[in-house]
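Workshop exercise sheet. Pairs work together: one partner reads the sequence aloud, the other fills in the structure field after running the prediction. Swap roles for the next sheet.
Pair: D.N. / O.F.
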Amino acid sequence: MTISKKKSDLAWAGLATSHLLLSSMAQAQSVSFIARLAFSAGMTPHSVVVGDFNGDGVLDLAVANIRSNNVSVLLGNGDGSFKPARNFGVGSIPESVAVGDFNGDGVLDLATANYGSDNVSVLLGNGDGSFQPAQNFGADTSPRALAVGDFNGDGVADLAVANERYDNVSVLLGNGDGSFQAARNFGAGDQPSSVAVGDFNGDGVLDLAVANIRSNNVSVLLGNGDGSFQAARTFGAGTFPDSVVVADFNGDGVLDLAVASSGSYNVSVLLGNGDGSFQAARNFRADGAPSSVAVGDFSGDGVLDLAVANERSQNVSVLLGIGDGSFQAARNFGAGGQPSSVAVGDFSGDGVLDLAVVNGDNDTVSVLLGNGDGRFQAAQSFAAGGGPFSVAVGDFNGDGVLDLAVANHGSNNVSVLLGNGDGTFQAAQDFGAGIFPESVAVGDFNGDGVLDLAVAIAGSGVVSVLLGNGDGSFQAARTFDVGAGPSSVAVGDFNGDGVLDLALGNVNSVSMLLGNGDGSFQAARNFGVGSFPESVAVGDFNGDGVLDLATANWASSNVSVLLGNGDGSFQPARNFGAGSAPHAVAVGDFNGDGVADLAVANERSDNVSVLLGNGDGSFQSARNFGASRAPESVAIGDFNGDGVPDLATADFLSDNVSVLLGNGDGSFQAARNFGTGDGPAGPILVVVGDFNSDGLLDLGVANFTSNDVSVLLNNTPWQSSRNFPTE
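Structure field:
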């Protein structure tokens, strides 16, 4: 079956909050960041801030999620990775989150601006990373962003909230116990979208700067020191200013402004005059639709730099400061889908600033660890094959190093990437396969000790067999007829003659081709299964020493199990329920009882079904464990070295891999997500292997949309992806 894949589109909001962290934490001459890690948040995360919420000296993240109406708190491990998110409810459509100590107990609290419920939620921290239930305080209509400051000089944190609908800022003075007085409103520009705090005229009183998305300017409201503000003065910015931050960019001791403007694809820098007025904006190019800007010294030269989240180009621009208020040309680094907010902190404890970016299109937070020179490592890339659909692992040239074979649905070939032994791969060599290859498997089909390839060809209803030459090259494909639309191929000795056979999942059937031992195969025999089997896996499910089959049936949302008779034939299929639209199945012993179990990736229910085996060929009811969006493939390995099988899924719509660590009793921990590319990738299949010979299992991922293969090297905790296109 040929499958059409299309990335889902979310409406471009272009509205986010600003985050400010001023630091000079590293000593280096130039700037780079390590490729990103990805961690799940709630639904459509829109804003991220940094703080130490459990008092362990390690920075944590708080993320406002506009579709799930909550805040996700991800506690840091201190190495740049984060624990699974814990969620705390807030008001409706929280657009922004801010950090402060609102009750004076020395513990950080959170506040969110809730666009849908016209209020602010305050969550008081318990000091252990958890938060008390939200208390809500009214703002004006459609609050978009908020900032924290002491506006009346009483030593208590107050809130300033930018309200889009009525073009004003609400100021809520704090009472010191975590509660706030009724809001007082002060006019700003047309549709304020972001607010920042600073002393712009040097009088020791905090002032406000507000980015106005419709009037294309910044409003500055000078504080009176009693919690009230003077009438706004406006200064031009770019087109559709979304985010504003405050810092001293030219080293004159006067605060300046930086404004991210989504309509003009730039950052406007307005240098302060010291009296509350600002010079005309100077514009510096970012990338597609910048929606958030943050400040830090990313190159360790003592000069402040800018980091900008670009929603449409799905990346982060880093603009290194020159020290006079101007900036170098932007350097861009991949984030996830629709990045809407960026925050700065040292998440790995190495003294170098890192970035955290929330991705609204795939419900994740991307963490980009800094190298101290202000850049991120570029992906290593080669010319790509068209629409890679499947990837398999083997040593194709006999050098003891694992290689990759990739079935390319769009270019009708197989790409072979020979491994270098350090986790990198040589340029792809391509070998013709057939029309729409969808799956590739590895085995020695002619008994010469050299690995060969078998490829399911959906467009012509055949399996192509490419015999290996032993040097990483392959002979011309030989084809053997199977059923209609084969989408998956698996290898095993199904009749016990010591020769490898093939099993292919077709439309509503499985084809069995018994091997002759010379690389050729007997005519296919077909056995009925569920509707549209997308994947076939092999195991001994009833302990009789004979291989059986399991298929993931996409249209009937179940798994078919066919018990083998030992002669290459199979008993009628027995079906067991899975999740919605199962797309892949894998076999492992997840509870350590010596009986084969099944793991099924469910494309539409965004989870993995685990069916524990009873040992007689039957299975217990499925238990479901969340993955990310649209898991298309599942693979098994012990990724943390505890002797317990874990799971990895390729998540097509969230551009990442979910890793679920096993508990040893058939259950799994919450998924941790790791990005597979610098933009829309479309990961569709994941395989396991040790690609750099360090004894740790790594992952290889075929990315359908970006036409490449991502390799994620395991360092327990994980490294992020390095990309190798497949042709």
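Discussion prompt: DSSP finds no helices and 56 strands in the chain. What would you look at next?
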